[in-house]
Design a protein that fits this description.
This protein has six helices and seven strands; from the N terminus they run αααββββααβββα. It is α+β, with helices and mostly antiparallel strands. It has one domain. The protein starts with a helix and ends with a helix.
Amino acid sequence: MADSNNYSLYQEQKKLRPKLEDVLSEYLSGDIRKTALNFAAWLKTIKMTPQWGSGNSWKLSYKSKAIGYIKLNDGSWYVCPAGNHHWGYDDFIGNEVFKELILRSVKPCTNCGPCAPGKSLAVCGEELDCTCGWFTIRFCDPGPDDLEKIKQLIDIRKKYYTDKLV
């Protein structure tokens, strides 16, 4: 049975299609809010305005291609790269700078979908078991240092689409 609170949130936001900044301001607090709002402002400077997608979820696109999502849940915010591990973490990230961040951000399976009990896959050269098949990588409440790396990942993904579509 669907959670009626989540359904109500979805119905309300579907009518309003709220801006990310407005919901971040209401949903988060303290340094986490400030960091999330700074990230949202940075997205605008690179002409990547988050588009509401569903209850507390916004899509990040570049040249009509999904780059990722921003999700709010349980008092936290998440940056989730689009797609699954096949989009090429190992191909695009050939150095150790991102490895620790990505590996600590792999979401374990919580039996939330049809991929339960999770997928086995290789991420950054590591073999992992029981990972989420929906959003394999979820950067939860990233601080300023992690956000700098996430911004670099977004730039890498944008460059991939720029080069691929040229």
